[in-house]
Each structure stands twice: as structure tokens, then as C-alpha cells.
């Protein structure tokens, strides 16, 4: 299997920066997705990395290193509405394989 | 297009009953996926269709589960003889895929099943 691991829970303060890590054990995938999911809602797309390196999109950035089997999602200038679960997922064309998800709580 | 729609949003059923969920994908999308998500976990793949053909089924999809996409548009997921362990959020997603290129997935809001 792909063994995709993420920390279960993280906490941070409003206005701070937080990095959510994702490690995996496979080489056969097209790219890596990050999704945000608020409780009881659909996962929504945040980012997609195909090549190694950093992809920046506003307050959110995502990094991928295929050789290290590692990705992270960086959230800057945290807001209360960023409290949610963050899911990393490997894209093997036929389907997405998700990690366990990281529940982020942002405090004032 | 209003995105991926799932119906119902919530379903409470007694153990042993059959339930059926519906998913309406984005109309231009040729692929449709079903996932199951339990509390505090990421979604787990169940099955997917390309048009009306069911191309892959996970080992998680026991013989009590059946999915159909008869005309390549909407899909149904039926669970027979429900068990308490079936309680979960059932997510549907759709995508447009051309040969080896997937142009992105869109998820529905899910159907939350509670088996009592």
C-alpha cells in the first residue's frame, strides 16, 4: 500500500504560520493533492503538485519532494475559518488515495 | 451546473435494513467515484466508474454493497443488510479524465449514514 501518514491533530494561533506534513511510501503516482474539509462538508481542492518544489497560492503553499516521499502544506496568516481537516492524497489517475487527515484548530 | 449532488444528506436506518444513496455528478465528467469516510479518518476508495462501466472495486466493497451507473450519468450505491460498522459518510466525486490525464476531482457533500 501507499502508507500515507499525517499528524492527527495540530493547533495554532490566529495570524501564525503552520506546516502540515504528509509522508508516503510509493513512487508510482501522477501528483499529490491537498484538500480542505470542514466538518460535515465536502473536501475542497487546495493544491496539486506534480513536480518537486513549492507551489504558492495566496496564503497557502504546498511542497513536494518525490525522492524523500514527503509533502507539506504551509498555511500563513492563519484565520479562524482555517480550522478544518487537511487531507493529502496521491493521484494515480484511476483514483485518489487519501492520508488519514490532519485536524487543525486555530485559536484566537 | 451545481456541482456534485448527493441524496440524501443524512440517513438513519435500523440494522439489517437496506439503504440506497444517489449521486449526480457534474454532467461533463466521465468518471464517478465512491468513497467512505469514518470519523477522524481520510476518505477510503470504494469503487469508480468510467461512463457506465465499473472499472475497479476495493476489497472494502463487500458483497452487501453494490454500485451502479446505468446510463453513465447518476450513480446509486446500495448497502444490503446494514451493519453498525457501515455507519460512515459516503462521498461521491466526479472527474473528467482523458487517457492518462485527470483534470481534477469534485466532491459532493456526502451522505451520512447512521445504523442503529
Helix-strand topology string of chain A: EEEEEEEEEE
Number of helices of chain B: 0
**CA-based gyration radius of chain A:** 13 Å
Q: Count of helices of chain A?
A: 0
Describe this structure in words.
The complex is a heterodimer of chains A (108) and B (116). Chain A is built from no helices and 10 strands. With 108 residues, chain A is mainly β. In chain A, a hairpin with a 6-residue loop joins β3 and β4. The mean pLDDT of chain A is 93. Chain B is mainly beta and 116 residues long. In chain B, β7 and β8 form a beta hairpin. Chain B is globular. In chain B, strands 2, 4, 5, 6, 9, 10 and 11 form a 7-stranded mixed beta sheet that branches. Chain B has a 4-stranded antiparallel beta sheet with strand order 1-3-8-7, with no helix packed on it. The chains are: A mainly beta (108), B mainly beta (116). The interface between A and B is medium-sized, with 25 and 26 residues.
Quick take:
The complex is a heterodimer of chains A (108) and B (116). Chain A has 108 residues and is an all-beta fold.
How does the SSE layout of this entry go?
The complex is a heterodimer of chains A (108) and B (116).
Chain A: E1 9-13, E2 18-23, E3 31-37, E4 44-49, E5 53-57, E6 60-65, E7 70-75, E8 84-91, E9 96-98, E10 102-107
Chain B: E1 5-7, E2 10-13, E3 19-24, E4 31-37, E5 44-50, E6 53-57, E7 65-68, E8 75-79, E9 88-98, E10 101-107, E11 111-115
Parallel strand pairs in B: 2-11
Antiparallel strand pairs in B: 1-3, 3-8, 4-5, 4-9, 5-6, 7-8, 9-10, 9-11
